[in-house]
Amino acid sequence: MKKPPTQSIKIAIPIVVLSCGIAGAWALVANRPELEPKVRTNEAPWVETITVQPQTLKINIRSQGIVKPREELTLVPEVAGKIVRMHPNFVPGGFFEAGELLIAIDPRDYDHAVAAAEAAIAEARRQVLFEEAQAEQAQEEWQALGEGQSTPLAMHEPQLAEARAKLKSAESELANAKLRRSRCDLFAPFAGRVVEKQAGIGQYVQIGDSLARLFATDAADVRLPVPAEQLGFLPFDFVSSGGGISRETGVMLSADIAGARHRWQGRIVRAEAVVDETTGLLHLIAEIRNPYQSEQGGVPLLAGLFVQAEIEGREQREVFELPVGVLNSMQEALVIDGDLRLHIRRLDVLRREADRIWIESGLTAGERVVISGVPVPVEGMKVRVQKTTPEISADDHVADADADADAGAAR
After folding, report:
1. pTM of the prediction?
2. 387/325 Cα distance (integer angstroms)
3. What pLDDT, on the 0 to 100 scale, is given for residue 408?
Protein backbone atom coordinates (compact mmCIF):
# COMPACT_ATOMS: atom_id res chain seq x y z
CA MET A 1 0.00 0.00 0.00
CA LYS A 2 1.35 3.48 -0.93
CA LYS A 3 2.23 6.02 1.93
CA PRO A 4 0.40 9.30 1.95
CA PRO A 5 2.31 12.31 0.50
CA THR A 6 2.34 14.20 3.79
CA GLN A 7 4.34 11.49 5.53
CA SER A 8 7.14 11.71 2.89
CA ILE A 9 7.43 15.47 3.33
CA LYS A 10 7.87 15.08 7.07
CA ILE A 11 10.83 12.76 6.56
CA ALA A 12 12.52 14.86 3.86
CA ILE A 13 12.53 18.25 5.67
CA PRO A 14 14.91 17.27 8.53
CA ILE A 15 17.31 15.68 6.06
CA VAL A 16 17.48 18.87 3.99
CA VAL A 17 18.02 21.12 7.09
CA LEU A 18 20.82 18.91 8.39
CA SER A 19 22.53 18.92 5.00
CA CYS A 20 22.41 22.72 4.79
CA GLY A 21 23.94 23.04 8.32
CA ILE A 22 26.82 20.73 7.46
CA ALA A 23 27.49 22.62 4.24
CA GLY A 24 27.50 26.01 6.07
CA ALA A 25 29.89 24.81 8.78
CA TRP A 26 32.29 23.46 6.16
CA ALA A 27 32.22 26.83 4.34
CA LEU A 28 33.12 28.76 7.54
CA VAL A 29 36.04 26.48 8.29
CA ALA A 30 37.32 26.59 4.76
CA ASN A 31 37.20 30.39 4.50
CA ARG A 32 38.54 31.33 8.03
CA PRO A 33 41.16 34.16 8.14
CA GLU A 34 44.79 33.28 8.67
CA LEU A 35 46.16 34.39 12.16
CA GLU A 36 49.58 35.97 12.13
CA PRO A 37 51.72 34.94 15.16
CA LYS A 38 53.00 37.85 17.30
CA VAL A 39 56.39 37.78 18.90
CA ARG A 40 56.18 38.63 22.69
CA THR A 41 58.74 41.20 23.70
CA ASN A 42 60.03 41.75 27.30
CA GLU A 43 60.60 45.50 27.38
CA ALA A 44 61.90 47.35 30.45
CA PRO A 45 59.16 49.35 32.24
CA TRP A 46 59.10 53.12 32.27
CA VAL A 47 59.61 54.72 35.69
CA GLU A 48 59.48 58.21 37.15
CA THR A 49 62.28 59.26 39.51
CA ILE A 50 63.55 62.11 41.67
CA THR A 51 67.16 62.94 42.45
CA VAL A 52 67.77 63.45 46.18
CA GLN A 53 70.27 65.69 47.92
CA PRO A 54 71.07 65.98 51.65
CA GLN A 55 69.60 68.90 53.57
CA THR A 56 69.91 70.53 56.97
CA LEU A 57 66.54 70.42 58.70
CA LYS A 58 65.33 72.13 61.84
CA ILE A 59 62.56 69.95 63.19
CA ASN A 60 60.03 71.78 65.31
CA ILE A 61 57.65 69.81 67.52
CA ARG A 62 53.99 70.71 67.30
CA SER A 63 51.56 70.30 70.15
CA GLN A 64 48.53 71.99 71.67
CA GLY A 65 47.17 72.88 75.06
CA ILE A 66 45.01 75.19 77.17
CA VAL A 67 46.31 78.40 78.74
CA LYS A 68 46.30 78.33 82.54
CA PRO A 69 47.25 81.13 84.97
CA ARG A 70 50.52 80.69 86.83
CA GLU A 71 48.71 81.18 90.15
CA GLU A 72 45.01 80.88 90.94
CA LEU A 73 43.38 81.09 94.37
CA THR A 74 40.13 81.61 96.24
CA LEU A 75 40.06 84.70 98.47
CA VAL A 76 38.72 83.85 101.96
CA PRO A 77 38.66 85.93 105.20
CA GLU A 78 40.46 84.82 108.35
CA VAL A 79 38.24 86.98 110.57
CA ALA A 80 34.49 87.55 110.73
CA GLY A 81 32.83 90.90 110.17
CA LYS A 82 31.05 93.21 107.78
CA ILE A 83 32.71 94.31 104.54
CA VAL A 84 33.12 98.11 104.59
CA ARG A 85 35.39 98.75 101.59
CA MET A 86 36.33 97.14 98.26
CA HIS A 87 38.81 97.78 95.48
CA PRO A 88 37.18 99.79 92.66
CA ASN A 89 38.12 97.03 90.16
CA PHE A 90 36.87 94.24 92.38
CA VAL A 91 34.51 92.93 89.69
CA PRO A 92 34.78 89.92 87.33
CA GLY A 93 37.51 90.73 84.83
CA GLY A 94 38.90 93.62 86.89
CA PHE A 95 42.67 94.12 87.14
CA PHE A 96 44.61 94.84 90.32
CA GLU A 97 48.25 95.24 91.28
CA ALA A 98 50.22 93.29 93.86
CA GLY A 99 49.82 94.71 97.38
CA GLU A 100 46.63 96.68 96.67
CA LEU A 101 43.77 96.55 99.18
CA LEU A 102 40.99 94.33 97.80
CA ILE A 103 38.54 94.03 100.70
CA ALA A 104 38.35 95.73 104.14
CA ILE A 105 36.31 94.22 106.99
CA ASP A 106 34.94 96.43 109.77
CA PRO A 107 37.89 96.63 112.22
CA ARG A 108 36.21 98.24 115.27
CA ASP A 109 35.78 95.02 117.24
CA TYR A 110 39.41 94.14 116.59
CA ASP A 111 40.62 97.64 117.48
CA HIS A 112 38.83 97.21 120.81
CA ALA A 113 40.59 93.88 121.34
CA VAL A 114 43.96 95.55 120.67
CA ALA A 115 43.19 98.30 123.18
CA ALA A 116 42.13 95.74 125.78
CA ALA A 117 45.31 93.75 125.21
CA GLU A 118 47.44 96.90 125.61
CA ALA A 119 45.64 97.66 128.89
CA ALA A 120 46.32 94.12 130.09
CA ILE A 121 50.02 94.57 129.27
CA ALA A 122 50.13 97.80 131.25
CA GLU A 123 48.55 96.06 134.24
CA ALA A 124 50.94 93.12 133.94
CA ARG A 125 53.96 95.44 133.80
CA ARG A 126 52.75 97.27 136.88
CA GLN A 127 52.39 93.96 138.69
CA VAL A 128 55.90 92.91 137.65
CA LEU A 129 57.35 96.18 138.95
CA PHE A 130 55.43 95.75 142.19
CA GLU A 131 56.66 92.19 142.72
CA GLU A 132 60.23 93.18 141.87
CA ALA A 133 60.05 95.88 144.53
CA GLN A 134 58.56 93.43 147.02
CA ALA A 135 61.29 90.91 146.30
CA GLU A 136 64.00 93.53 146.72
CA GLN A 137 62.52 94.70 150.01
CA ALA A 138 62.23 91.14 151.31
CA GLN A 139 65.87 90.53 150.44
CA GLU A 140 66.99 93.60 152.34
CA GLU A 141 64.86 92.75 155.38
CA TRP A 142 66.14 89.21 155.49
CA GLN A 143 69.73 90.36 155.34
CA ALA A 144 69.07 92.79 158.20
CA LEU A 145 66.96 90.66 160.52
CA GLY A 146 66.78 87.14 159.34
CA GLU A 147 68.70 84.10 160.44
CA GLY A 148 69.32 80.83 158.65
CA GLN A 149 68.22 79.93 155.13
CA SER A 150 65.47 82.04 153.49
CA THR A 151 62.53 80.43 151.65
CA PRO A 152 61.55 81.31 148.03
CA LEU A 153 58.12 82.39 149.20
CA ALA A 154 59.61 84.78 151.72
CA MET A 155 61.78 86.25 148.96
CA HIS A 156 58.67 86.74 146.70
CA GLU A 157 60.23 84.61 143.98
CA PRO A 158 57.02 82.74 142.95
CA GLN A 159 55.04 85.98 143.02
CA LEU A 160 57.56 87.64 140.72
CA ALA A 161 57.63 84.67 138.36
CA GLU A 162 53.82 84.72 138.17
CA ALA A 163 53.79 88.44 137.36
CA ARG A 164 56.36 88.01 134.62
CA ALA A 165 54.43 85.07 133.13
CA LYS A 166 51.26 87.17 133.08
CA LEU A 167 53.17 89.92 131.30
CA LYS A 168 54.30 87.49 128.60
CA SER A 169 50.72 86.23 128.24
CA ALA A 170 49.44 89.78 127.89
CA GLU A 171 52.09 90.53 125.27
CA SER A 172 51.05 87.39 123.37
CA GLU A 173 47.41 88.46 123.55
CA LEU A 174 48.34 91.86 122.14
CA ALA A 175 50.26 90.26 119.27
CA ASN A 176 47.27 88.02 118.53
CA ALA A 177 44.88 90.98 118.67
CA LYS A 178 47.07 92.96 116.26
CA LEU A 179 47.29 89.95 113.95
CA ARG A 180 43.51 89.59 113.89
CA ARG A 181 43.21 93.33 113.29
CA SER A 182 45.63 93.11 110.33
CA ARG A 183 43.50 90.37 108.81
CA CYS A 184 40.62 92.81 108.45
CA ASP A 185 42.41 94.12 105.34
CA LEU A 186 42.80 91.65 102.49
CA PHE A 187 45.63 92.65 100.13
CA ALA A 188 46.38 91.26 96.67
CA PRO A 189 49.17 88.65 96.89
CA PHE A 190 50.06 89.24 93.23
CA ALA A 191 49.12 91.32 90.23
CA GLY A 192 46.09 89.70 88.69
CA ARG A 193 42.44 89.69 87.71
CA VAL A 194 39.15 88.81 89.34
CA VAL A 195 37.57 85.69 87.87
CA GLU A 196 34.48 85.52 90.06
CA LYS A 197 33.09 87.81 92.77
CA GLN A 198 31.03 86.31 95.60
CA ALA A 199 30.73 89.15 98.14
CA GLY A 200 29.72 92.80 98.31
CA ILE A 201 29.94 95.86 100.54
CA GLY A 202 27.77 95.55 103.65
CA GLN A 203 27.81 91.74 103.60
CA TYR A 204 28.70 90.00 106.85
CA VAL A 205 31.25 87.25 106.24
CA GLN A 206 32.47 84.39 108.37
CA ILE A 207 35.91 82.86 108.59
CA GLY A 208 36.50 80.65 105.54
CA ASP A 209 33.74 82.12 103.36
CA SER A 210 34.59 82.34 99.66
CA LEU A 211 34.78 85.99 98.61
CA ALA A 212 36.26 85.79 95.12
CA ARG A 213 38.43 83.79 92.73
CA LEU A 214 41.64 85.46 91.55
CA PHE A 215 44.46 84.56 89.18
CA ALA A 216 47.88 86.06 88.50
CA THR A 217 48.60 87.95 85.27
CA ASP A 218 52.40 88.13 85.42
CA ALA A 219 52.76 84.73 83.71
CA ALA A 220 50.67 81.98 82.13
CA ASP A 221 51.40 78.28 81.67
CA VAL A 222 50.43 75.81 78.95
CA ARG A 223 50.75 72.02 79.34
CA LEU A 224 51.99 70.64 76.02
CA PRO A 225 51.79 66.87 75.44
CA VAL A 226 54.74 65.45 73.48
CA PRO A 227 55.31 61.79 72.49
CA ALA A 228 58.35 60.33 74.21
CA GLU A 229 59.98 59.42 70.89
CA GLN A 230 59.97 63.06 69.82
CA LEU A 231 61.96 64.27 72.82
CA GLY A 232 65.13 63.60 70.82
CA PHE A 233 64.23 66.53 68.56
CA LEU A 234 64.54 69.01 71.44
CA PRO A 235 67.69 71.20 71.36
CA PHE A 236 69.19 69.63 74.49
CA ASP A 237 69.97 66.16 75.81
CA PHE A 238 66.81 65.17 77.64
CA VAL A 239 68.31 61.89 78.87
CA SER A 240 71.54 63.25 80.35
CA SER A 241 69.61 66.02 82.09
CA GLY A 242 67.73 63.43 84.13
CA GLY A 243 64.43 63.95 82.37
CA GLY A 244 64.44 67.69 83.05
CA ILE A 245 64.90 70.80 80.96
CA SER A 246 68.62 71.55 80.93
CA ARG A 247 68.05 74.88 79.20
CA GLU A 248 65.02 76.93 78.28
CA THR A 249 63.65 76.39 74.78
CA GLY A 250 61.56 78.77 72.71
CA VAL A 251 57.96 78.01 71.81
CA MET A 252 55.51 79.90 69.62
CA LEU A 253 51.82 79.78 70.56
CA SER A 254 49.04 80.69 68.15
CA ALA A 255 45.26 80.87 68.16
CA ASP A 256 42.41 82.36 66.14
CA ILE A 257 40.71 85.31 67.86
CA ALA A 258 38.08 87.50 66.18
CA GLY A 259 38.78 85.93 62.81
CA ALA A 260 42.54 86.60 62.86
CA ARG A 261 45.57 84.51 63.73
CA HIS A 262 47.54 85.79 66.72
CA ARG A 263 50.86 84.59 68.13
CA TRP A 264 52.62 84.76 71.48
CA GLN A 265 56.25 83.96 72.25
CA GLY A 266 57.00 81.73 75.23
CA ARG A 267 59.58 79.29 76.55
CA ILE A 268 59.67 75.70 77.78
CA VAL A 269 60.72 75.93 81.43
CA ARG A 270 60.18 72.40 82.79
CA ALA A 271 58.81 68.93 82.18
CA GLU A 272 56.40 67.02 84.35
CA ALA A 273 57.75 64.15 86.43
CA VAL A 274 55.93 61.23 84.82
CA VAL A 275 54.73 59.99 81.44
CA ASP A 276 50.97 59.63 81.15
CA GLU A 277 50.40 55.87 81.38
CA THR A 278 47.22 55.98 79.29
CA THR A 279 48.55 58.03 76.35
CA GLY A 280 52.33 57.58 76.57
CA LEU A 281 52.80 61.37 76.42
CA LEU A 282 55.08 63.57 78.50
CA HIS A 283 53.83 67.08 79.26
CA LEU A 284 56.18 70.02 78.82
CA ILE A 285 55.30 73.31 80.54
CA ALA A 286 55.46 76.46 78.43
CA GLU A 287 55.60 79.79 80.26
CA ILE A 288 54.48 83.09 78.74
CA ARG A 289 55.53 86.22 80.60
CA ASN A 290 53.08 89.15 80.86
CA PRO A 291 50.39 87.53 78.70
CA TYR A 292 48.06 90.54 79.05
CA GLN A 293 50.52 93.21 77.92
CA SER A 294 50.42 94.72 74.44
CA GLU A 295 53.91 93.58 73.44
CA GLN A 296 52.63 90.00 73.35
CA GLY A 297 51.13 90.41 69.87
CA GLY A 298 48.71 93.19 70.72
CA VAL A 299 46.02 90.72 71.90
CA PRO A 300 45.98 89.31 75.43
CA LEU A 301 46.58 85.62 75.88
CA LEU A 302 43.38 84.80 77.73
CA ALA A 303 43.25 82.08 80.35
CA GLY A 304 41.31 79.05 79.12
CA LEU A 305 42.21 79.69 75.46
CA PHE A 306 43.06 76.63 73.35
CA VAL A 307 46.32 77.28 71.49
CA GLN A 308 48.55 75.53 68.99
CA ALA A 309 52.21 75.33 69.96
CA GLU A 310 55.38 74.95 67.91
CA ILE A 311 58.39 74.05 70.04
CA GLU A 312 61.82 74.97 68.73
CA GLY A 313 63.74 71.86 67.72
CA ARG A 314 67.35 71.04 67.03
CA GLU A 315 68.98 71.02 63.59
CA GLN A 316 69.31 67.67 61.83
CA ARG A 317 72.04 67.45 59.21
CA GLU A 318 72.40 65.14 56.19
CA VAL A 319 68.73 64.19 55.90
CA PHE A 320 66.80 63.47 52.70
CA GLU A 321 63.25 64.44 51.78
CA LEU A 322 60.99 61.95 49.98
CA PRO A 323 57.34 62.21 48.93
CA VAL A 324 54.69 60.25 50.78
CA GLY A 325 54.06 56.87 49.13
CA VAL A 326 57.65 56.19 48.07
CA LEU A 327 58.24 53.80 50.96
CA ASN A 328 56.37 50.54 51.34
CA SER A 329 55.23 49.03 54.63
CA MET A 330 58.73 47.61 55.17
CA GLN A 331 60.25 51.11 54.87
CA GLU A 332 61.85 50.13 51.55
CA ALA A 333 62.35 52.35 48.51
CA LEU A 334 63.37 51.66 44.88
CA VAL A 335 66.71 53.13 43.80
CA ILE A 336 68.16 53.18 40.26
CA ASP A 337 71.89 52.80 39.71
CA GLY A 338 73.98 54.12 36.83
CA ASP A 339 73.12 51.12 34.64
CA LEU A 340 69.39 51.80 35.04
CA ARG A 341 68.92 48.72 37.17
CA LEU A 342 66.47 48.64 40.04
CA HIS A 343 67.51 48.02 43.66
CA ILE A 344 65.24 47.56 46.66
CA ARG A 345 66.77 49.37 49.64
CA ARG A 346 65.66 49.64 53.26
CA LEU A 347 65.86 53.20 54.64
CA ASP A 348 66.00 54.63 58.16
CA VAL A 349 63.11 57.04 58.65
CA LEU A 350 63.77 60.08 60.80
CA ARG A 351 60.25 61.46 60.68
CA ARG A 352 56.97 61.03 58.84
CA GLU A 353 54.75 63.98 58.08
CA ALA A 354 51.47 64.54 56.28
CA ASP A 355 53.09 65.40 52.94
CA ARG A 356 56.68 64.13 53.16
CA ILE A 357 59.09 61.70 54.77
CA TRP A 358 62.51 62.57 56.18
CA ILE A 359 65.19 59.89 55.75
CA GLU A 360 68.05 59.71 58.24
CA SER A 361 70.24 57.16 56.47
CA GLY A 362 70.22 54.73 53.55
CA LEU A 363 70.63 57.24 50.69
CA THR A 364 73.56 59.14 49.22
CA ALA A 365 73.67 62.49 47.47
CA GLY A 366 72.60 62.39 43.80
CA GLU A 367 70.85 59.02 43.87
CA ARG A 368 67.66 58.56 41.89
CA VAL A 369 64.63 57.23 43.74
CA VAL A 370 61.64 55.76 41.90
CA ILE A 371 58.35 57.46 42.74
CA SER A 372 56.04 55.59 40.31
CA GLY A 373 55.92 53.07 37.45
CA VAL A 374 56.92 49.71 39.02
CA PRO A 375 53.91 47.81 40.34
CA VAL A 376 55.91 44.59 40.91
CA PRO A 377 59.59 45.45 41.51
CA VAL A 378 62.30 42.83 41.09
CA GLU A 379 65.85 43.31 42.37
CA GLY A 380 68.22 44.07 39.49
CA MET A 381 65.54 44.47 36.81
CA LYS A 382 66.21 46.87 33.93
CA VAL A 383 64.10 50.03 33.76
CA ARG A 384 63.73 53.08 31.57
CA VAL A 385 63.51 56.55 33.06
CA GLN A 386 60.43 58.29 31.78
CA LYS A 387 60.83 61.58 33.59
CA THR A 388 63.09 63.06 36.22
CA THR A 389 61.68 65.73 38.48
CA PRO A 390 63.80 68.77 39.41
CA GLU A 391 66.39 68.04 42.03
CA ILE A 392 65.70 68.93 45.64
CA SER A 393 68.13 71.70 46.48
CA ALA A 394 71.21 70.66 48.40
CA ASP A 395 71.57 74.10 49.99
CA ASP A 396 71.09 74.15 53.75
CA HIS A 397 67.71 75.41 54.76
CA VAL A 398 65.48 75.38 57.80
CA ALA A 399 62.16 73.58 57.42
CA ASP A 400 59.32 73.63 59.86
CA ALA A 401 58.10 70.12 60.61
CA ASP A 402 54.41 69.32 60.93
CA ALA A 403 53.74 66.73 63.65
CA ASP A 404 50.66 65.77 65.61
CA ALA A 405 51.77 65.17 69.20
CA ASP A 406 48.91 62.80 69.98
CA ALA A 407 49.52 60.59 66.91
CA GLY A 408 53.32 60.49 67.42
CA ALA A 409 55.65 60.58 64.45
CA ALA A 410 57.51 57.37 63.58
CA ARG A 411 61.25 57.39 63.92
Report:
1. 0.64
2. 18
3. 42
